[in-house]
Amino acid sequence: MEVYKGEKKRLFLENHSIAHLFSFPIEAFMEVHEYQRDEWIIKEGMRPDFLFYVLEGKAKIYVTHQNGKVSLINFINANDYIGEMELLNDVYYTKGIQASTKTICFAIPFHRYRPQLLDDAKFLRELTKFLSVKATLMAAKYSQSLAFPLENRLADFILQTADEGIYKEKHVTVCDYLGVSYRHLLHVLTQFCDKNYLQKDGRNYQIKQYHSLCELAGVLKNK
Predict the structure, then answer these.
(1) Contact 50/109 with Cβ under 8 angstroms?
(2) Are 166 and 204 in contact, with CB atoms under 8 Å apart?
(3) Cβ partners under 8 Å of residue 133, min gap 6
């Protein structure tokens, strides 16, 4: 993880200001963090020291069940918050957040801003909108497992998790997240390769036809 300093930080703050989301000056003590693929932004069970606002990149949310099984439960994208539940709740079991591409975040220190954030009506309105959209998307994910075939859901998953055109998620993770059998997943991946949507490269897959995957994934979006 890199923390931007000096001129690099100043230029980034100048070009990516989020001052409009708050009713008080926040940028003086705000940090800029950059994470590489597979780096942990937050480790599971450890309360974060920051409220993060994602500017660039993608991340994944994991949880470990009582039986030791680890499950992927959701994605984080640009303009999403990380650590909002820990901000709002004194007692909350923190999920693991792992970068799936290079990810750049604003990091707002809890110890400095927590009281002001919780008293800031402007920020809380924006956070409420974010949480309502997040809840809606989670509900849609579960309904999609019944309403749409694997081809559509897998295309969306590949686009969500690919890094610079390379898809490299573990099959067992995908099966768990999408609720499908290992055999069914391999069958659809083979179909995608036969249609030249993907090209297998060792254990990874290179995206060859973004537009085809986007068309399949687009069926999931409510117009």
Answers:
(1) yes
(2) yes
(3) none
Average pLDDT over every residue of 143-153? 82
Q: SS3 sequence, 102-147?
A: CEEEEEEEHHHHHHHHHHCHHHHHHHHHHHHHHHHHHHHHHHHHHH
- Predicted structure pTM score: 0.85
Q: What is the pLDDT of residues 39-84, one digit of tens each?
A: 999 999 888 999 999 999 999 999 988 888 888 988 999 999 999 9
- For residue 182, list its beta bridge partners: none
Amino acid at 152: N
Cβ atoms 9, 47 nearer than 8 A: no
CA-CA distance, 176 to 107, in Å (whole number)? 31
Residues whose CB is less than 8 angstroms from the CB of residue 20 and which lie 6 or more positions away in sequence, other chains included: none
Of 4, 20, 24, residue with least CA distance to 12: 4
| pLDDT tens-digit map of 94-117 | 899 999 999 999 999 999 999 999
The pLDDT of residue 223 is 44
Length of the chain: 223
What CA–CA distance (Å, rounded) separates 108 from 78?
A: 16
Q: Are 105 and 41 in contact (CB under 8 A)?
A: yes
